Write the C-alpha cells for this entry.
Amino acid sequence: MDYQNLIDGAWVSCGTAVPNVNPSDTTDVLGHAAQAGIEEMTQAISAADAAAQGWAASTPQQRFDVLDFIGTEILSNAQALGKLLSREEGKTLPEGIGEVTRAGHIFKFFAGEALRQTGDLLASVRPGVGIDVTRDPMGVVGLITPWNFPIAIPAWKVAPALAYGNAVVLKPAELVPGCAHALAQIIAKSDLPKGVFNLVLGLGSELGPTLINDPRVTAISFTGSVPTGRGIAAACGAQLKKVQLEMGGKNPLVVLDDADLETAVEVALNGSFFSTGQRCTASSRLIVTQGIHDRFVARLTERMRALKVDHALGDGVQMGPVVDARQLAQNLEYVQIAKDQGAQVIGGARVTRETEGFYMEPALITDTTNDMRINREEVFGPVATVIKVADFDTAVRVANDTEFGLSAGICTQSLKHATLFKAQAQAGMVMVNLPTAGVDYHVPFGGTKGSSFGSREQGRYAAEFYTKVKTAYTGV
Ligand code: ADP
C-alpha cells in the first residue's frame, strides 16, 4: 500500500517512500508513505486557499451531507479501519475499533452542528438600528496531529473545520500515515469540492514552518508535544495568527480512604495502562491517602501483573506494544530515573514476545514524592507512580502541583470530597470514580496551565476556534 498526499483532489506521491512499520511485529510493513516537501505543502495551501471561498458559501445541507457521508463510511468500515489502526499504532483491536467508531461519531455530530449554526439578533442602543452577530469561517486552517490517536484526532479537527465552512490542510504524524490516508480516501469519495480538504504527509519539522508561516493559513490547530507546541505558539503569536494547542499531561488520580477499592483499582488500571499509557489524559500520578494506600497498591499490582501484554491484534490482549523504539527507550529511561531517585519499581521491564515488537511490562512506581522527575515530566507510556498522602487537602495540593492541567480524577464515595475536588482541581477535565482518560465526543476537550492553549476542541465549543465573529449593524 502506498500512502499518497491528497492535493487539490489529486493523489500525489513524491519524495522517498518511508515504511510504515507495525510496532507489534517489525517484520510487518503496512505500506510506504510519500514524503512531501515544501513545494507540495505550498501547493496544498494554494489549493485550500482557492477552494475556501466556495466552501464558505456552501449551504448547511451540503455540509451536513458531506460530513454525514464521511461518518457513515467510517462507521461501516470500523472493523477494517480499526485493524489498520491497531497494526499501525499498536493499541489493541477493541481499542482500535473503538477509536474508529468515535471518529465516525464525531463526523456525525458535526454534520448536525452544520445545520444548527445560529447567530444573535439584537436591538441597538440607538434607534433605527438593528444588529446581527454571526460566525464566519476562518478560511484555510492548518491541522497538525500526533500519532497516539491516528484517526480520532484528525477527525475532531477536520470535522468541525469543514462543518464551519473552512478549507483544510492536514499534516498527520509521521508514524501513522495509514489512518490519515484512509480518512483522506473516504473524504475524497464524498461530495466535498476538490481542494477543500488536503492531506500532506511528511516531516513535521520540515513542513510545519511552511504551513504555520504562510499568511493564507489563518489558524493552526496542533496536538502533540510541549516543545513543538510552544514553538508553534511563538510563531503564530509573532504573526497574530489564531492558534489552538493540546499538549502534555501529568494527570493525577486521587484515591481517598473511603473509595470503593475495586472501583479505584479498575479506574487506575484503565487510566494508567490502557492504550499502553499513550494518552495525554492517562493517569500518571496516583495520589493515595494513607488508610487505603497498602491495600490499593497490593490490588493494583495484582491486576497490573495479570494484564496480557502482546501483539495488538492478539486474542484477549489488554496492552499492545509501545509505538516505536524511541518511545520505548524513553519509557525505560524514565523507569531507571525513578529507581535512581529511590523509588520502588514494580514491572517496567522490556519484554519479548513471539513477534519482534516494542513490548514492555506496565510499571507501577511506588514510594515516590511529587518533586521527583518521574512526577514532573510526562513519560507517555504505561508508567504510573504512587504518591502517599495524609489527607484530602494534601491530595488536592499535590494533584495541582504540576505545570500541566489536562485531566484530574478522584475515587471517593464522599459527595463532599467529590464536589470539592471538581471545584478545586486545576484541570480542564475532572473525573469522579472514572478514569482520567476516555472522554465523550460531544463535549469540550482541553486543559489548563501548560497542557493546552487557545479555545476548546470538540462539541459546540469547537466553533470558537473554527469561526470568527462578525457584528453587523443595519440602519433602517
Ligand atoms: P511526538 O514527539 O509525540 O511525535 P511532536 O510534537 O513532535 O510529538 O509531533 C506532533 C505533530 O507535530 C506531528 O504531526 C509532527 O510531524 C508535527 N511536528 C513536529 N515538529 C514540528 C514543527 N517544528 N512544526 C510543526 N509541526 C511539527
Summary: The pocket of adenosine-5'-diphosphate is lined by residues 144-146, 171-174, 204-205, 208, 224-225, 228, 231-232 (CB under 6 Å). The mean pLDDT is 98. The two ends are 62 Å apart (CA to CA).
